[in-house]
Amino acid sequence: MASLTEDLAAQLRGAPTSQLAQQLGISQEQSSAAISAALPLLMGALGRNASQPQGAQALFGALQKDHAGMDIGSVLGAVLGGSQARQADGTGILGHIFGGQQARAETGVAQATGLGQGQAGQLLKLLAPIVMAYLAKRVMSGGASQQAGGAQALGGLLGQEQQQIRQQGGLGGGLLGAVLDQDGDGELGIGDLMKLGGLFGKK
After folding, report:
1. Which terminus, N or C, of the chain has the lesser number of Cβ atoms within 10 Å?
2. Where are the alpha helices (DSSP H) in the chain?
């Protein structure tokens, strides 16, 4: 059975990859490689955040409140179509996923893919709302509508995903380790995780 990252990557092949390439001003091959590096990083970072009960609850609340019922195609169309609200969503999501490590994440993607720092940052901002919409669809379709049970299921799902990404290694696993495995100020606190619950309360 395909992992979450593999399943979402498969859904982004073809036209979505081409659209992202055009938006970033890169080739389709570069776009495909960049997506392959960025998705495990985003999924793995969410898995790290959701490994704490408060983080899982906050993330589940954000998915339920702001991302349920959205399909990947419409979200992709919104971010590529210049929707400022959706692009602001991407910026906000990255801030909560990575906290003080956001610049480190952008640098890691840039170094791993050969993209410029700005292009790498833009790619992550474009992909972040798509990842959230995908997760919302996966979790809600499983009937996990209760806050406690849903948050627990989400935490387990993402925890397993993070472990799988690390075990597989490769570019995605290496990038995840390089960005997340550090001590000190870069670590996210519970306060950052709890903000996810009200991430998009203001439009």
Report:
1. N
2. 4-11, 15-24, 28-50, 53-62, 72-80, 84-98, 102-113, 117-141, 147-168, 170-180, 190-194
Q: Within 10 Å of residue 22's Cβ, how many Cβ atoms?
A: 12
C-beta of residue 60 within 8 angstroms of C-beta of residue 154: yes
Model-level pTM? Answer: 0.85
Residue 200 placed within a domain: no
The alpha-carbon radius of gyration of the chain (Å, integer) is: 15
Local structure of 98: helix, strand or coil: helix
DSSP designation for 65: I
Would 178 be classed as within a structural domain?
yes
**pLDDT, tens only, 31-86:** 999 999 999 999 999 999 998 888 999 999 888 887 777 788 888 888 887 666 66
Residue 125 resides in a domain:
yes
CA distance 72 to 48: 23
Q: Domain span at residue 71? A: 4-195
Residue 201 lies in a domain: no
For 62, the token pair is 């954000």
- Answer yes or no: are the C-beta atoms of 48 and 59 closer than 8 Å: no
DSSP secondary-structure letter at 116? -
